[in-house]
Structures are given as structure tokens and as C-alpha cells.
């Protein structure tokens, strides 16, 4: 199994090109199931989860072509299988996103209950309740969600989600585009990735009002057509690299970034002492001092994203001062704390709050990645740790970061992948 070997090498300087967002690309790929036409997606990150989604769609009969760089063509006219099997779904929670579009277009779907990162319960019951409100009959048997639309079509409905759910909003939004009548989705997630999906669906012929708000109204259409669409830049990848520079010092410019999607992260970095400048598609960070400790509390967008909590904890671990980090989204998302403490951090946790007392330096160690963002926090911690850091089980990392060792190496980091 691959590992990363990291040795601290001083400040980072140069430019990094940001990839498309994984969390936008996966639902966009699933949207290809809604149409007989061809959906051409650009700026797609070539990640393990993207390749898994490709296999999943191909297993359902869709034609999926790629240049293996950043573009995909998905044609749903050949779909002949409405079942998403366990062997693919078990590795990736986003697989549940084939449920809504498949059920809406074909009147039936069978999807294995998903797997993914072990960061806490992410139940799909909100997805299922919403589809039931739209007329679906759903049973769960032998680990599979089996859904049918008795009239062959889903029916427009008013759906109020009990809690904000990104995946639930995306699944129900896709399903509603082909439902008969009008669907009103309330308490929607407003993450940039949800907005990206909605904008793409509109290009495919969907009728959606309220994009980017907590209430979306969808007037069902009989069919969607093909389109060409570019995936929004990855705000979490960008935030991870900004945290790395805030820790090591230096000056780095991120290209193909989307600063408008991550304002709260940029504000927190300024609070930590970084000089941040941004344009429409770039962000620069200049950090010439030790970061200051900053308090973090995760919440749904547009508040501080849970996917940046671990990286900011790593930064706070070497910051000047003491701070608290409160996680309100996932109950198991502090699994990086013991690993950071093995590197010399001083972090204690009780319940969903961690107290981070900044130390002047970390020391290299062999550490184990437990989930995607925890992996990233350990990598950037290794950039400022004395000696050698080995990050094991980086298959988590490969699910969400495209060529992270090459991108960091390009701005001066001493980091290499060890194949094992």
C-alpha cells in the first residue's frame, strides 16, 4: 500500500493549479443518467472516487469516455441496468447519488447502501423520505435500497428536509427534474457543489428556481438533453494548500481557484496572520510569521466547512496561542488528533470540542490516515515537522486530492510517494 514520505524543507513558494472539486464532479457524473444525450464535463479531477463512479455508470450500461486528464463524456442512452452493486458502492458514499436520477428516469432503481470514510453516521433516510414523498415505494432488503415509482414516474411534491443534507439535496434535485408536476425542496443545502449541480441541470434543460437558496422549486420536464459543463474548482483542495503555506511560511499563488466559494476560510487565514489577495480565479497567500491560533466552529455553508477542520487543526497545532475547534457536523471527525499528538502536538478533546495549545515545532513520525481530510492534515503537518514523517494508508488521500505530492513538490516541499 502506498505511503508518503515527507521531510520539512522550509517555506513554500510558487504556483499551484487547483483541480475541479470532487464533491461537485461525482453528482455531475451521476446527472448523466438523466439524459439520452451526451453530458461533456470539463475540469474533472482524476481521483479514485471519480474512477469508481466511472465504473459504476459503465456497469449500469452508460457510455463513459475520458481523456484521462480532465474531461469526461457520459451518455445515458445505453443504460440497461438499474442496479448499483455493493462491490462498487461500498467504497464510496456518493454512489447513493445514482438513486434519484435512475428512479426518476426509469421508474425503478436498486442501490446498495453505501460505505466511505468512517467519520460518523451519514444516514440516507432523508434521501429516501424525500423520494417517498414524490411517490416512490421503497424497501430495504439484504443491504440494498429497492425503489419503484408505481406510476412509472415520480410525482412533484413539497419536501421539507429534517436537516441540511448535501447529498440528499442533490439526489432529490436530480429526481425532481423528471418528476411530473412541480417539486418544492425546502431546507436545501447551499454548498457551492449543490449550486454547480443545479446550474448544470439547467444547461441540460431542467427548470429550477431558487438556486443557491434554501428553497428550490423544480418544474418537471419530460426529458433532459446533453450539455457541456465545467466543474467548479475545489475549495477544499485550495484551502488545504493555503493552510500548508500558513504553516511553512512563504508565498504561493493558486490558479484556477474559486475564492468566492470559500470566503470564511480566507477570513480565518487572515485572522491567523496571512496576507490574502484574490481575483476571479486566483488566490495568493503571503505568510512571513508564525500563524496565530484561531477558533473554529464547523457548520453548514456558508459557515466554516467541516472538510477544512482537520487542516486548520494542524495549523493551530503550530500556532502562537491556544484555541478551540468545535465540530458540529460529524461525530467521529477527531480521529486525526491522536496522530497529530504523536507528532508532538498538544491537543485534547472532550465531546465535539478540541482544545489546541500551539507548540513551536512538531517532530516527524509514522502516522496513519483514518479518513480523507485527516490524511491531508497529517501531510501538511509533516511539512513543518523535524525529521521524517511517513503517512500510511494514503488511499484515503487519493480519493480527494489529485497528485498532492507533485503539487506540493512543485512549490518546494520535500515529499515523495513510496509504492508498497
Arithmetic mean pLDDT: 95
Helix content: 25-40%
E-strand count: 26
Please compute the radius of gyration using only Cα atoms. Answer: 21 Å
Q: From the 3D coordinates, which CATH architecture of the largest domain would you assign? A: Alpha-beta prism
DSSP strand content: 25-35%
Explain this structure.
The protein is of the alpha/beta class and 420 residues long. It has two domains: 3-18 and 233-418, Alpha-beta prism (UDP-n-acetylglucosamine1-carboxyvinyl-transferase, Chain), CATH 3.65.10.10; 22-230, UDP-n-acetylglucosamine1-carboxyvinyl-transferase, Chain, CATH 3.65.10.10. It is built from 14 helices and 26 strands. The strands form seven sheets. It has a four-stranded mixed β-sheet. Strand 12 (207-209) and strand 13 (215-219) form a beta hairpin. The longest helix is centred in the middle third of the chain and has 14 residues, at 235-248.
In short:
The active site is at residue 117. With 420 residues, this protein is α/β, with parallel strands linked by helices.
Descriptive terms for the model:
420 residues; alpha/beta; UDP-n-acetylglucosamine1-carboxyvinyl-transferase, Chain; 2 domains; four-stranded mixed beta sheet; 26 strands; EC 2.5.1.7; cell shape; cytoplasm; cell wall biogenesis/degradation; UDP-N-acetylglucosamine 1-carboxyvinyltransferase activity
Annotate the secondary structure layout.
Elements: E1 3-7, E2 12-17, H1 22-31, E3 38-42, H2 48-59, E4 63-66, E5 72-75, E6 83-84, H3 86-89, H4 99-106, E7 108-112, H5 125-133, E8 137-141, E9 144-148, E10 158-160, H6 166-177, E11 182-186, H7 192-203, E12 207-209, E13 215-219, E14 227-230, H8 235-248, E15 250-255, H9 263-271, E16 275-278, E17 282-287, E18 296-297, H10 309-317, E19 322-326, H11 337-342, E20 346-350, E21 353-357, E22 362-363, E23 366-368, H12 372-382, E24 385-386, E25 388-392, H13 395-398, H14 404-409, E26 414-418
Parallel strand pairs: 2-15, 3-14, 6-7, 10-11, 18-19, 22-24, 23-25
Antiparallel strand pairs: 1-25, 1-26, 3-5, 4-5, 7-9, 8-9, 11-13, 12-13, 15-17, 16-17, 19-21, 20-21
Amino acid at each position: 500500500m502506498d505511503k508518503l514520505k515527507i521531510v520539512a524543507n522550509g517555506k513554500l513558494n510558487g504556483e499551484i493549479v487547483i483541480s475541479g472539486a470532487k464533491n461537485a464532479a461525482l453528482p455531475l457524473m451521476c446527472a448523466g443518467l438523466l439524459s439520452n444525450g451526451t453530458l461533456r464535463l470539463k475540469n474533472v479531477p482524476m481521483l479514485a472516487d471519480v474512477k469508481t463512479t466511472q465504473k459504476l455508470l459503465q456497469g449500469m450500461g452508460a457510455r463513459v469516455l475520458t481523456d484521462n486528464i480532465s474531461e469526461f463524456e457520459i451518455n445515458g442512452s445505453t443504460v440497461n441496468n438499474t442496479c448499483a452493486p455493493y462491490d462498487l458502492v461500498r467504497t464510496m458514499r456518493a454512489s447513493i447519488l445514482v438513486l434519484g436520477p435512475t428512479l426518476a428516469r426509469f421508474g425503478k432503481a436498486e442501490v446498495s447502501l453505501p460505505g466511505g470514510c468512517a467519520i460518523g453516521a451519514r444516514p440516507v433516510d432523508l434521501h429516501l423520505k424525500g423520494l417517498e414523498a414524490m411517490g416512490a415505494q421503497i424497501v430495504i432488503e439484504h443491504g440494498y435500497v429497492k425503489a419503484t415509482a408505481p406510476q412509472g414516474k415520480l410525482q412533484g411534491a413539497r419536501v421539507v428536509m429534517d436537516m441540511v443534507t448535501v447529498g440528499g439535496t442533490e439526489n432529490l434535485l436530480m429526481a425532481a427534474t423528471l418528476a411530473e408536476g412541480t417539486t418544492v425542496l425546502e431546507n436545501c443545502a447551499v454548498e457551492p457543489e449543490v449550486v454547480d449541480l443545479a446550474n448544470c441541470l439547467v444547461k441540460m434543460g431542467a427548470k429550477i428556481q431558487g438556486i443557491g437558496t434554501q428553497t428550490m422549486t423544480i418544474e418537471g420536464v419530460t426529458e433532459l438533453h446533453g450539455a457541456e459543463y465545467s466543474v467548479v474548482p475545489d475549495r477544499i483542495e485550495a484551502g488545504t494548500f493555503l493552510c500548508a503555506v500558513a504553516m511553512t511560511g512563504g508565498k504561493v499563488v493558486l490558479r484556477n481557484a474559486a475564492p468566492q466559494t470559500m470566503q470564511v476560510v480566507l477570513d480565518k487565514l487572515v485572522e491567523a496572520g496571512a496576507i490574502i489577495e484574490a481575483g476571479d480565479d486566483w488566490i495568493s497567500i503571503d505568510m512571513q510569521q508564525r500563524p496565530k491560533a484561531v477558533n473554529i466552529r464547523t457548520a453548514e455553508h456558508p459557515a466554516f466547512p467541516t472538510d477544512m477542520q482537520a487542516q486548520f487543526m494542524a495549523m493551530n497545532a503550530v500556532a502562537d496561542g491556544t484555541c478551540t475547534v468545535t465540530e458540529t457536523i460529524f461525530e467521529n471527525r477527531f480521529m486525526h488528533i491522536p496522530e497529530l499528538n504523536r507528532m508532538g502536538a498538544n491537543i485534547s478533546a472532550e465531546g465535539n470540542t478540541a482544545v489546541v495549545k500551539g507548540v513551536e515545532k512538531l517532530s516527524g513520525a509514522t502516522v496513519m490516515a483514518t479518513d480523507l481530510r485527516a490524511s491531508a492534515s497529517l501531510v501538511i503537518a509533516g511539512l513543518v515537522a523535524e525529521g521524517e514523517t511517513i503517512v500510511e494508508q494514503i488511499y484515503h488521500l487519493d480519493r480527494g486530492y489529485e497528485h498532492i505530492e507533485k503539487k506540493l513538490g512543485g512549490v518546494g516541499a520535500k515529499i515523495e510517494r513510496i509504492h508498497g
